[in-house]
Task: structure prediction
Amino acid sequence: MTRRMFKISAGFEEVMPPEYRELVEKGPFEKQLGVAELGTFKELLEEHPLCAGCGLALSLRLTLISLPSPEDTVIVGATGCSSLAFPQVAVHNIHSLFGNQNAVATGLKRALSLRFPDRAKDVVVIAGDGATCDIGLESVMHSWFRGEKLTTIMLDNEAYANTGGQESGMSQLGTVLNMAPMGKKFKKVAFPEVAKAAGCVYVAVAAPHQPRRLERSVRRAILIAREIGPTYVQLYTPCPTNYKFKPADTLSVIREQEKAGLFRPDEYLSPEAAAYIQQLEEAKG
Amino acid sequence: MYVICKVDEKKCNGCKLCIWACPDPNVIVFDPDSKKISIHQARCKGCGLCVAACRQKALEIDAV
Result:
């Protein structure tokens, strides 16, 4: 996508919504902005309907800022809390059936590499824990087995949050939720380990309490997926509505979980991915 | 009752911690000239994450 695609035609400036005009004038397209510049430009997300204090919304916001080239990115979403925010995202995005996000992304990536052989087009899957680890597990795993050059980002809020709070595979052992009154009977799925075993060349676990680390993880995952192979990022995003804590405590809950050993930031690079990142950093200087 | 965040400009030192903690986009705007932040009140949901992040105690949640 080039800049002229979203420019307003002459004479139509006054009828376009103010948010769109702001995006054209002060948007981050083709500017290489990051988390450090937040607050000085128009973000790619506009007023979303997610709850006050939502960790998922914060992670989605930071993820969208971290995209290395938003004008050449297509996001594939899935049903869940995040799908409520996607109509407000100013990046090409697709919503398909619940759970088949990685299958859709596979076809899209192949078509884009045929259509634009000399331009890097990033296909990024952003889905919740239910879509990635439970319902969409088969399509996610098979895209990794095939070595598709996709980035899969899981927004892990440890529950099915927009349907009233059912337990998901990613909920902690013993979690009691509105629709899981007996407590969860099995442990949280060690999905980063599954990703490593399934062939992901880059796996990272991060959370929005460390925005620069989150930015680095997302950026590296997308850059590595361009050249080497499938990558996976898991973002821990606590849910104040279903876990019944104050909206202002979202970030302190992440720190408490980290202290208790229930959440551990992590980064794994395969030898090829590490060599590629080193090469990119040396080229940058 | 609707609540939103309000900023005390005298205490703000422009560290941007609140901007990195806010789940809603385009709410907290940073002015590079004065090195201070301002709040877009119509977009703020009053969750209080920025208040928890602010080390200068420059922010508070208050009624509209």
In short: Chain A touches chain B at residues 35, 38-40, 42-48, 50, 52-55, 57-58, 61-62, 208, 211, 246-252 (CB under 8 Å).
